[in-house]
């Protein structure tokens, strides 16, 4: 901030107060036509406001700074983080306000972008509430970057999502879907019925509520402790085949394996041995490499359709199913398994107190699924 050492002067010729101030080599003149002390203070306030503004370059355009921000994000975040931000900028932000000066942006400018995106989707159906919320978070993060670079002083705190934005509904497996998943391992491929390669991955995900990326990143020798019946989630592999520490800060966790989950792991190992697949990954592709999200989804869709499961069920809804089946279990017991809530310290899971809780959680989870499976013939788990 520059210091103001002069005071406004009244100019009789022009009938106004005037003050000239300089900051960073730039000189500006501020005036006020209000006579008397009130006008002098108003003129002085204008000058002080400009001097207190720490913006170092008021001419930089939105599109220029936005591209610079995306390039910086690429250096320290995963592709799954920055790729949506890049798309928001390309499809919505830059076409609407790319040539606007960052220093001139107002909260209403940003709000109008969200309202426009809501009513003018780039392609297809209207954007969901979650997507619009992600766009709002993106704009707030960009403005934080602009403030950090002293290119704006705007804090867009009141941006809102339209009330009629569509909220996506979560679907889960129904009991009959779970029975089918654990009784049928067949799918249809190349005009014939064959065993589904990822059948045990599907079952393991439902039994423990694991995210697709966590299924992909699981390694048998490193993460599965068969002696103590424990599983540790250390990392995930995202849709861009990048190894990450997980979706949230609570994603790294350790928990006791229910009996059904142990049986699934044993079946998976037996399948890999028969196929001659050697891999550090628990649920690898046939070449031993970690599963690819697109391949995983394609296999699930084919299995789902062949076995007449809900035609909208996707892999992530296996996690939703886990919570639905186990909604009677206290949240504090599910936290270590699901990776939600207060962080669960994996280093402490072998203490007696937490062992007791982990054992109880595993038993309750196992009982809940057994209650469903008892209503049908269990073929798949022990096949």
Provide the gyration radius in Å.
29 Å
Percent range of helical residues: 40-55%
Strand order of the largest sheet: 1-2-3
Mean pLDDT: 87
The number of strands is: 10
- Note the total helix count: 14
The parts where pLDDT drops under 50 for at least 5 residues are: 342-353, 378-383
Order of helices and strands: EEEHHHHHHEEHHHEEEEEHHHHH
Q: Main beta sheet: strand number and arrangement?
A: 3 strands, antiparallel
Distance between the termini: 74 Å
Beta-strand residue fraction: 5-15%
Q: Please state the overall shape, judged from the principal axes of the Cα atoms.
A: elongated
Structural class: mainly alpha
Description:
By secondary structure, the protein is mostly helical. 47% of the residues lie in helices and 10% in strands. The chain has helices at residues 36-52, 62-76, 79-97, 107-119, 129-148, 175-181, 199-208, 212-217, 220-223, 259-275, 293-306, 317-325, 331-338, 352-373; strands at residues 9-11, 16-23, 26-32, 186-189, 192-195, 224-225, 230-233, 236-237, 243-244, 253-256. A hairpin with a 5-residue loop joins strand 8 (236-237) and strand 9 (243-244). The longest helix has 22 residues, at 352-373. 30% of the residues are buried.
Key features of this structure:
mainly alpha, three-stranded antiparallel beta sheet, 14 helices
Q: What's this model, at a glance?
A:
The chain is mainly alpha-helical. Helices cover 47% and strands 10% of the residues. It has helices at 36-52, 62-76, 79-97, 107-119, 129-148, 175-181, 199-208, 212-217, 220-223, 259-275, 293-306, 317-325, 331-338, 352-373; strands spanning 9-11, 16-23, 26-32, 186-189, 192-195, 224-225, 230-233, 236-237, 243-244, 253-256.
């Amino acid at each position: 901030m520059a210091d103001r050492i002069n005071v406004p002067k009244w100019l009789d010729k022009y009938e106004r107060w005037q003050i000239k101030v300089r900051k960073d080599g730039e000189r500006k003149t501020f005036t006020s036509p209000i006579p008397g002390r009130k006008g002098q203070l108003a003129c002085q306030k204008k000058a002080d406001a400009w001097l207190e503004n720490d913006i170092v370059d008021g001419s930089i355009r939105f599109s220029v700074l936005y591209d610079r921000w995306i390039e910086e994000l690429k250096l320290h975040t995963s592709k799954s983080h920055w790729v949506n931000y890049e798309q928001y900028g390309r499809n919505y932000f830059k076409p609407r306000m790319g040539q606007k000066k960052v220093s001139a942006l107002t909260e209403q400018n940003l709000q109008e972008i969200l309202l426009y995106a809501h009513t003018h989707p780039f392609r297809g159906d209207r954007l969901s509430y979650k997507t619009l919320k992600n766009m709002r978070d993106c704009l707030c993060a960009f403005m934080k970057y602009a403030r950090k670079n002293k290119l704006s002083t705007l804090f867009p705190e009141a941006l809102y999502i339209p009330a009629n934005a569509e909220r996506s509904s979560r679907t889960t497996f129904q009991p009959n879907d779970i029975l089918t998943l654990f009784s049928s391992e067949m799918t249809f491929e190349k005009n014939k019925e064959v065993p589904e390669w990822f059948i045990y991955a599907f079952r393991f995900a439902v039994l423990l509520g694991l995210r697709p990326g966590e299924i992909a990143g699981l390694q048998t020798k490193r993460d599965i402790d068969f002696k103590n019946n424990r599983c540790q989630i250390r990392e995930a592999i995202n849709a861009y085949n990048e190894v990450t520490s997980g979706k949230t800060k609570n994603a790294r966790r350790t928990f006791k394996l229910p009996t059904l989950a142990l049986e699934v792991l044993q079946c998976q190992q037996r399948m890999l041995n028969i196929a001659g697949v050697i891999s550090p990954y628990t649920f690898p592709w046939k070449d031993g490499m970690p599963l690819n999200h697109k391949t995983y989804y394609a296999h699930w869709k084919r299995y789902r359709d062949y076995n007449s499961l809900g035609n909208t069920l996707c892999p992530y809804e296996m996690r939703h199913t886990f919570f639905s089946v186990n909604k009677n279990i206290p949240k504090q017991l599910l936290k270590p398994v699901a990776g939600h809530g207060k962080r669960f310290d994996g280093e402490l899971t072998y203490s007696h107190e937490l062992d007791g809780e982990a054992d109880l959680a595993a038993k309750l989870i196992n009982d809940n699924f057994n209650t469903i499976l008892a209503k049908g013939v269990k073929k798949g788990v022990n096949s």
